[in-house]
């Protein structure tokens, strides 16, 4: 994990250092939200400063970025146009390529092209033309296996899936990348279904939903499997609900143990250190009551947290370079959608970064949560992200936690449990 974080930080600093000219520089280029506008600026740059034939690698970071951007857009023709210029992808660009493949597979966008792209990436990894270093090879293998299953190449799919499980970097089980385990289980279900192993697929996904190793994309896969096993879709919604209810109630009981019964408006939030040595790590310092704090939103408007008195308030602290922070957002968005604004309010509070950087990131990712900023990290002195704090309607801290829950569904159940427990125990 330390190696992974170091690679991400180094890559981020490389972005900031590259500046071919005063007018055109890579940092500004990556801040452009739409790939169409990025391509327009790239072509303008080429016209003003053509590639030197003696330096074929000139501007390759731009071409890699454009390949990544077009893939995320689902434009395979433009992806291959830039990919075939053989640019070197840095660690962040490679990570984004794998995220794009995740999204394209989940949306069932042209399985044939997704298979070709994922196969090409695997070939580049095999020859050394592309470096991983962050533990995403396994995910690309899973996607290639599942798309081969969709295309009828069952034997190849089974071989690839088995080979993916030979990778022992632990990233599938680690709560770091969004839905790493649940994505695998969904793809496993797709391959087993194609191979005619319907009961195996049914049992696997039943267990996944029951244990909250699940996400919304898995529902459609499970529906097909259920119909094949049962001979009908009748009863599917009821069965799925029973599995989800079981997962939620289990999560509720676990979260309930974390409730802070004694009212506290200030608190040093401590959690056990990851090493399991029994020591505690101070995650944040809440030295002032939350109602005394005011933070700007992404438009610069100051938001006074005292205005949210009489509501359950959640603050989640994050940064754009924190992969597990962003992984949790899809679960948060579902909780926000469940409640009216007069009952619950959530803010995700960006740390350490300027407004322009965060605003661009939010637009690119399509984040719908309410974002505030504490660029200097002066209000809670947060020592690790993601960190979440839940306040009751009187401003008392009732829960705090760190890390990503590992799946969209589990993150949803966890936060929803915190809100429901806080609501039920509030004596207003």
UniProtKB/TrEMBL annotation:
Keyword annotations: Signal
Domain of life: Bacteria
Cited InterPro entries: AhpC/TSA (IPR000866), Thioredoxin-like_sf (IPR036249), Thioredoxin_domain (IPR013766), Thioredoxin_ResA/DsbE_sf (IPR050553), TPR-like_helical_dom_sf (IPR011990)
Signal peptide positions (record): 1-16
MF terms (GO), sorted A to Z: antioxidant activity; oxidoreductase activity
Name of one Pfam family that matches: AhpC-TSA
Entry's Gene Ontology BP terms: response to stress
Keyword Signal: yes
Thioredoxin domain segment(s): 284-423
PANTHER family noted in UniProt: THIOL:DISULFIDE INTERCHANGE PROTEIN DSBE, THIOREDOXIN-LIKE PROTEIN HI_1115
Protein name per the record: TlpA family protein disulfide reductase
Species: Chitinophaga varians
Lineage, highest ranks first: Bacteria, Pseudomonadati, Bacteroidota, Chitinophagia, Chitinophagales
